[in-house]
Amino acid sequence: MADLSNAQQDALIRARWPGFRTVMAGKRLAIWRGAIQGLSHRYEVKVVYARNRRGDPFRYNYAWFPEVTVLDPPLCARADDPLDPIPHVYNDPTSGQPILCLFDPRDHGWSRDQAIADTILVWTASWLRFYEAWHATGVWTGGSAPHGPQALPQSDRADDNILPPSGTPSRRRQVLFTTASEEALRLGLADPDLGAWSRPARASSQLAEAA
Question: Is the pLDDT of residue 142 over 90?
């Protein structure tokens, strides 16, 4: 299935997430901001999606998939254990803001023919619910895959260039999502049909045409 352009992604986000606004939607770089509801708080988040290509003379220093950061209220450690790091994020040395780990890139959990509105933003809402539950209990009930620090993974697309430009710091991953736990499903923190940790359905041709 053909990739969704940034213009198509933008139309789908604005149609399905009316609380989101477009900061920019260029051919190669798009940025959105908007509010997503957690269990008891609303969060202002930013989504950055760069479409770098191998051989481009200029490349944006972002991953090949949409990067989500929480702007307000900012993510923070638990008051009961301030030394316990925020789980399921990876560090961006250029901005200092944690980027949410929403899927496992090694398992091709997201691709450019999928609608950000139906995958990344839905997964972000689930991540925020798990985050609030972790603050209350100290236990992360979402699924995860243990993962050591490394640079961004190689793409399954030959024409994609997803590694940071030479000389820039590599991002360090802590853990990546895979599947939601049974406990999370029981507590209602994850959607069994639109769960953040199942392999997402690809955007339909009708969805792409509607954009």
Answer: no
